[in-house]
Write a structure and sequence with these properties.
Blueprint: H1 3-19, H2 32-43, E1 57-59, E2 67-78, E3 84-94, E4 99-101, H3 105-114, E5 117-118, H4 120-135, E6 139-148, H5 149-152, E7 163-170, H6 171-174, H7 176-185
Helix pairs in contact: 1-2, 3-4
């Protein structure tokens, strides 16, 4: 994020502070606009980037039946209210033609997709689509469990609710036994 955009955010936050009836010159809140601008530059760092590029593909002699990385923590911002939602992501794929991705790149892919205003449903689909694009595996499975502060802090004001989303492609969509194995391994039924 460039300095011009940071200044825009700082000015907007100052306006919000005034609009809610607080004094932006109050000592403990004076630096809040700059802090929010800095935070937003990190939280929304992947906004506008269409594809994940920070990965390495490796060749192996024999395909695994399924590769699973589970309980990947993530944080994102709801595009409807600009409030946080957070939880865990489970990702699986079945390699094809001996092509695998470095395991640490899957959590990086989750971060890439989550660092933009979005909704959980889109994050689920984007992770699946990007892994499918990168590896062209036999199939991909993604499940997400998340809490949404737009439900907990406003609206219905109910805390501790979790939202579950899934996206299956390729063999995970066709092979119900494989899909169930993924769901059992990731404890979601």
């Amino acid at each position: 994020m460039n300095e011009k955009d940071k200044t825009k955010i700082e000015n907007a936050v100052t306006d919000i502070i005034e609009a809610i009836g607080d004094d932006p010159k109050r000592a403990s809140i004076q630096e809040t606009p700059a802090r929010v601008a800095t935070a937003y530059s990190e939280i929304f760092s992947e906004t506008g980037n269409a594809h994940f590029t920070d990965y390495k593909i490796f060749d192996v002699d024999e395909n695994a039946d399924m590769v699973v990385v589970q309980d990947i923590p993530f944080y994102s911002m709801c595009e409807h209210h600009l409030l946080p939602f957070f939880g865990t992501v489970n990702v699986a794929y079945v390699p094809q033609d001996g092509k695998i991705i470095g395991l640490s790149k899957i959590p990086r892919l989750v971060n890439f997709v989550a660092r933009r205003p979005s909704v959980q449903e889109n994050i689920t689909v984007m992770i699946n689509d990007e892994l499918q694009r990168i590896l062209k595996p036999k199939g991909v499975a993604v499940s997400i469990s998340a809490r949404h502060l737009c439900m907990e802090m406003r609206g219905i004001n109910k805390s501790g609710l979790s939202t579950y989303t899934t996206k299956f492609s390729g063999v995970f969509k066709e092979d119900h036994e494989l899909k169930n194995e993924f769901l059992q391994q990731t404890r979601q039924k």
